[in-house]
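Onboarding guide, step 5: your first structure request.
Type a short instruction followed by the sequence, for example:

Predict the 3D structure of this protein.
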Amino acid sequence: MKPIFLFLSIVLIFANCQPVPENDFELQEGDLLFQDSDCGAFCDAIEAVTQGVDGYDFSHVGLVMKSDDGTLKVMEAITKGVVLTELDSFLNRSFDKNDQPKVIVGRLKSEYMDLVPDAIQFIHSKMDATYDFVFNIENDSFYCSELIHLAFEAANNQTPIFDAPPMTFKSPDTDSTFAIWVDYFNDINQPIPEGEVGLNPGSMSRSPYISIVHKYGEPVIGD
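The system replies with structure tokens like these:
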């Protein structure tokens, strides 16, 4: 069983900012793209355990970088590994009821923007890395939020700017492990890493180090 996107777990601190109006917004290198992906039961399970900023559901995150020709692309970890993705391809993965991308933009606050070049360089150095199917922050494979967390940690002299709390694979309603995760970890013959350190796009979107500066569309608001 191979899901389209897998990314994991739990809670952080609240930060809020009014998004920039559409006609005034320009995407910048270093912006974080928080995405409400439509990948079925896996995304549903990810989104259930941690709400994003303003209650939005997020199951994926990528980092904007600028190519030598000035083109903006997205650095991300997906099941193919750590890749560079065309911006349009990223934005066109999931849409709201108005056919707008279910993506909001987080931007590091001005006092932390100097971390961006080194974070991007870190990800460039990992472009051959595989996807972290077991969600182990200690190995040299990466899932989406883990990649970005470790990139900014490296850029900040090994001091993290995103919290990495214990992961959970359990439904908050029943305290039972989601069936999709039981099947997934059985299929790859690995124990469920309940309680191990990890990251989740939802919690990252609430980081006090970033401001939400734009909404392309309207992600789903969780229960």
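Each response can be followed by summary notes, for example: The chain has one domain: 22-215.
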